[in-house]
Specification:
The chain is mostly helical. It folds into two domains: 204 residues, Citrate Synthase, domain 1 (Orthogonal Bundle); 100 residues, Cytochrome p450-Terp, domain 2. Helices cover 57% and strands 3% of the residues. It has 16 helices and three strands. It has a three-stranded antiparallel sheet. Helix 6 packs parallel to helix 7, helix 8 packs antiparallel against helix 15 and helix 13 runs parallel beside helix 15. It is globular, with a radius of gyration of 22 Å. It binds acetyl coenzyme *A. Acetyl coenzyme *A (ACO) binds next to helix 15. The site of acetyl coenzyme *A has 21 residues, from helix 15.
Length: 373
């Protein structure tokens, strides 16, 4: 029996043409395009098309694809009823997981996973998250608008007001940067479920569960908590020293694959500088600088750098999203990658079923119940 690779680090379990994470050189590529290039020259809708079709859309393709996404924004009433039935104190990720499951149960898709099915999920996620946010605030969910972009419509659904171009662009850039990322934990979860020939909704519900954890997509609100607790640049050194002395993991730093700066962090830092209040951005950069110095001094062998979540928190805070919608907003983006991976998995499927190394006892004898101690 070969030895266990804890956390499957470095184990290659799938071919993919969707994205490549180059951890040594700090590069992330979607279907051949560098993410910084896409962030500057494409929209989220274009990136979704790229993941599904393997090329960037021309004008006609984009218009059809955007119209299709926009036309699926209104949810089956069963989904809204399900959201209404949940306590208003529920965590938004729990609500999204439950609503996505309800959407699947109510959907008419029965055959193999398809782009149409994926489109329904991608289009429905912002409506579900915003509906819950309004319901918990005692407001009625509002009808999605087909004339707004994916990012613009999401912001509109939350506030009821048409967002500025700057806010929409900032959120759109965030959605582009987090759409796909190789075989991260939630995408792997989706591919495992798809490999059993279960349905696409089940794969996506599983992926939502995996994304929720703080070692994956659950970190950005915790980054904000950390920054709020630190409060001022002057407090940063003492706070970080104390945290590291107590073995606390600094949220927004370290990555399984990147052994240099996460390329998404670079783009998001520049975006945060434009979208955050000056004082907040100064605090974030001071905390980042000190955290990097301390992590490098204390754990040089681990090569810990800023990951996507650190400045995601600043950007989402800058576009006025409530803290507990940061991870659901990550899901609004990543559902594009999840569904593209499900479709890719099914093109050349084999059940994903790894082995385990048994460490329990052998040859025990089951005594009748009344003879057991
Ligand atoms: N702060 C302090 N120490 C850290 C951090 C951190 N952020 N990240 C890793 N380390 C240390 C660990 O304590 C460990 O030290 P040790 O060997 O002395 O015990 C060492 O670095 C290796 O850590 P692992 O957990 O083995 O690294 P792994 O590759 O499994 O974890 C992870 C990567 C989970 C992202 C980790 O760096 C982490 O916990 N970061 C903080 C949470 C975070 O930012 N999550 C978002 C990740 S990005 C995303 O998923 C979208």
């Amino acid at each position: 029996m070969s030895s266990v690779v804890k956390g499957l680090e470095g184990v290659v379990v799938a071919d993919t043409a969707l994205s490549e994470v180059d951890g040594e050189n700090g590069r992330l590529v979607y279907v051949g395009y560098d993410i910084a290039d896409l962030a500057n020259h494409a929209t989220f809708e274009e990136v979704v098309f790229l993941l599904f079709h393997g090329h960037l859309p021309n004008r006609r393709e984009l218009s059809e694809h955007s119209a299709s996404l926009a036309s699926h924004r209104t949810l089956d009433p069963v989904v809204i009823d399900t959201i209404r039935a949940l306590p208003v104190t529920s965590e938004p990720m729990d609500v999204l997981r439950t609503a996505a499951s309800a959407l699947g149960a109510a959907s008419h898709f029965t055959g193999p996973a398809s782009i149409d099915h994926a489109t329904t999920l991608i289009a429905g996620f912002p409506t579900m998250v915003a509906a819950y946010d309004r319901i918990r605030r005692g407001l009625e969910p509002i009808e999605p608008r087909e004339d707004l972009s994916h990012a613009g419509n999401y912001l509109y659904l939350l506030s009821g007001e048409e967002p500025s171009e700057q806010r929409t662009k900032a959120l759109d850039t965030y959605l582009i940067l987090t759409a796909d990322h190789g075989l991260n934990a939630s995408t792997f979860a989706a591919r495992v479920i798809a490999s059993t020939l279960s349905d696409m909704d089940s794969a996506i519900v599983g992926a939502i569960g995996a994304l929720k954890g703080p070692l994956h997509g659950g970190a950005p609100a915790l980054v904000l908590d950390m920054l709020k607790e630190i409060g001022t640049p002057e407090n940063a050194e003492a706070w970080l020293t104390n945290a590291l002395d107590h073995g606390v993991r600094l949220m927004g730093f370290g990555h399984r694959v990147y052994k240099t700066e996460d390329p998404r962090a670079k783009v998001l830092r520049a975006l945060a500088e434009r979208t955050s209040e000056i004082g907040f951005f100064k605090l974030a950069t001071r905390v980042e600088d000190l955290a990097l110095q301390m992590l490098h001094a204390r754990k040089p062998q681990n090569r810990l750098y800023t990951n996507v979540e650190f400045y995601s928190a600043a950007v989402m805070h800058g576009v006025n999203l409530p803290d507990d919608l940061f991870t659901p907003t990550f899901a609004i983006s990543r559902v594009s990658g999840w569904t593209a991976h499900v479709l890719e998995q099914l093109k050349d499927n084999r059940l994903i079923r790894p082995a385990s190394h048994y460490t329990g006892p052998w040859d025990l004898k089951a005594l009748p119940l009344d003879q057991r101690q």
